[in-house]
Amino acid sequence: MAASAISSQPLEQTQTQTQIKSDDPKITIQQILDIVNNLHTTVNKSQDAGAAIASTRSAGPELVHVSTTTPISPRNALETAISLPLPDKKSEGREDHHISMVQRNLRLLKEDVIKLQDLRSEVAEEVWKHIRPLQGLLDKVKKGEEKSSKTQLTNGMKKDLEVINKKIFNLMCQVPLLPNKPKKRGVSDDHDGDKINTCKGIVCLHGIHATEEDLKKRAVYRYVLGELEKLEDDKKIYLLTFAVFPENQEVNRTMLMYWWIGEGVLPVVGAECTVKRVLEEFMEKQLIEPVENKRKVEANSYKMNPFVHSSLVLMAKEIGLFDMYNHKTQPKMNKSILYKVCLVEDSSSQQEAKAKKMPALDIETVFNVSERFPDFAFKWFAEDQPSGKKTFGGLSKPVYKMLKVFYLGRWERTANRHIEVENPEVMKYLKHMTKLKLLSFQGISRIERLDDAVCKLRELIILDLRACYNLEKLPDKIDALKALIYLDITDCYMIDRMPKRLSWLDNLEVLKGFVVSDADEETVCTLVELRHLKKLRKLTITINKGGFTVLELFMAIKDFKMLEKLKVAWGGINKRPEDKKIDGENKDKVVGGGKKQEQKDKAIIKKQEGLIKRTASKFFAAKEKDLEKPELPETLKKLDLQCFPDAELPEWLEPRKLVHLEKLYIKGGTKLTGFGVLPANPTACSVKVLRLKFLPKLTVEWRDLRKMYFPELKFLEKYQCPQVSFCPCDGIGIWRKPE
């Protein structure tokens, strides 16, 4: 309709048009939009030509004539909303600014209505698919009842019900949180209380937990609450800890285990099996879901549906376990009723970051969720902390007996979040945390050494120093940590020596990041001395020592009676003096009169050779017969070799000798050519999982690999091994044995 015709219409006629009522909201919205468009045109006509509004205002002319019959997907609607142009600040005072805002909101409202109506039909169709299978299941049960007085579901029926239930639950979790309509008079609670909105909509809503009243009315909330109430007390804590992590984040199983042990809700004995079993139970109840990774035999990271996560956030807040998320605001650091403090981004700028505002005597847990500069948390536990009572039992210095978890490091496996301690001197306050069970500085930079105060933590079970790139030294008196079970110094590249007393940690079960170096053996802990760790189950080693052979490695671990997992990486090995080539310039100096220096070098070399011979003679004298044929510990189930230095596997590592090993990884080895002599018959090898990476010279065919060398193989990963041929791997180099 022309603008002139619109402007000349009588006011009564326009009002009559607006009074036409329709049951379809799309029609009503379009009527209103037509009126606003007419208003926009009329106002625009009265403006000067130079002040005319660009057509891109109000979300663009292409959105004006939205077809009422074309469905708009949630993704397209979201992208449309995001791409809307912001109002021009220079023209905020123009008369048409408010009109453009009404136009934009009407168009978005119309798109939402179209989306909901279309998706309602889609959900109805999806639900209809389950009627026939369920009716068939009911008929089978009735027939069984006629034949026998005892009616039971077969395993096949139970499996069918599980599949249907999973689909229905996923559909239920995607219902958007729209406010419930008020009850009509005459309608009973029985017909309205359990009504579920059947619109398939938003997958992830930011801050959905903030709408508490709406959330509590949702079927998802009731389901999560019901499942939570069925759990044992410890498992309730396990599940509620997921409320701390941001929405849609991957959470690692090992990190969860560390935290639960530190809180004292997970027994240390059998902790790894218990955690795995609990997480599997949560998956069965569809409270969490595994993060799929085709390169993993089984998942070790987990995510949570946003609706389930929001429900747990609210529950954790109501019982006083965690308190950090609030309606329409950024997460905030608070001390919960149950004495848990979660550090979030910009916590350091809050008033509560000051010791005067955060009394620390009763804090049980400090967990860093997203803060980059957590130094201030140390000061809560300072000697001059002005928090009421300053001593316990007449002691002259404060002791914080309540604190069990001090997790300042990174909980994410990725290094996207940079964490930094600006003043490492604050670590001296660790000496007051006498009851600490878990201490994590994972991924924190600028920590060059651990203060000796850490040796005061006599009840510490877990010390997590993973990826502390600036860390150069562990405390010499580390044996004071009598209760220590888990020590992780993986990726601490500056550490070149192990303290001598490390082998005195009688309860240590997991040691990750042990370094074999060229340091004087009289002042450092050697690999062979770790045999004193009678409970050691997991060990990862980095070899930075020149001439440390594969033979020496496996002779050193031969007496590790409890070892289950071993990972070895040959790193920056220094060449021996006799192997270094003399360049042209140095050679001329030697020939031209450097005989004296040459004689001196030879004397040094001879002295070093004598020392090496004496050391080797002393170490291997009693086991001279066993030097050629060491054996793997019978308890060893997983062996990971990285940057393997030799061209051939030694005899004790050939497949035919691996009768107890279940997982074998060989990642990197430019010289390795094969797995030994091809046996005439299949070997007794028990390896089920095999990973081969970066082995350019390894030559073997799939038939021999699968039938002769590794007859029990169930999983193979092959990457950049061009001469491992004819393997039926997928596009990323993975093969799995068919079920």
Placed side by side, the strands forming the largest sheet appear as: 4-5-6-8-10-11-12-13-14-15-16-17-19-21
End-to-end gap: 67 Å
Largest sheet: 14 strands, mixed
Instruction: Give me the number of helical elements.
Output: 19
**What oligomerization state is this entry in?**
single chain
Count of extended strands = 21
* Average residue-wise pLDDT: 78
Characterize the overall form: globular
Q: Estimate what percentage of residues fall within beta strands.
A: 5-15%
- Helix content range of the residues, please? 25-40%
Secondary-structure content class = alpha/beta
What is the alpha-carbon Rg in Å? 34 Å
Protein name: Disease resistance R13L4/SHOC-2-like LRR domain-containing protein
InterPro entries: LRR_dom_sf, LRR_R13L4/SHOC2-like, WH-like_DNA-bd_sf
Keywords: Plant defense, Repeat
Organism: Eruca vesicaria subsp. sativa
Tags for this model:
alpha/beta, 14-stranded mixed sheet, 31% helix, disordered N terminus, 739 residues, 3-stranded antiparallel sheet
Describe this structure in words.
- With 739 residues, the protein is an alpha/beta fold.
- Among the domains are: 3-126, no CATH class; 638-736.
- The chain has helices at 3-8, 11-18, 25-45, 74-82, 97-128, 131-147, 155-173, 189-192, 212-216, 219-230, 233-240, 253-263, 271-284, 306-318, 376-379, 550-556, 584-591, 595-620, 702-709, and strands at residues 251-252, 289-290, 301-303, 340-343, 365-368, 405-407, 419-420, 438-440, 444-445, 462-464, 486-488, 510-516, 538-543, 565-570, 638-642, 663-667, 689-693, 700-701, 715-719, 724-725, 734-736.
- Strands 4-5-6-8-10-11-12-13-14-15-16-17-19-21 form a 14-stranded mixed β-sheet, with helices on one face. The protein has a three-stranded antiparallel β-sheet with strand order 1-3-2.
- Helix 3 packs antiparallel against helix 5, helix 10 (219-230) packs across helix 14 (306-318) and helix 12 crosses helix 13.
- The protein is globular, with a radius of gyration of 34 Å.
- The model is unreliable at 1-19, 48-94, 177-206, 386-395, 573-596 and 620-627 (pLDDT under 50).
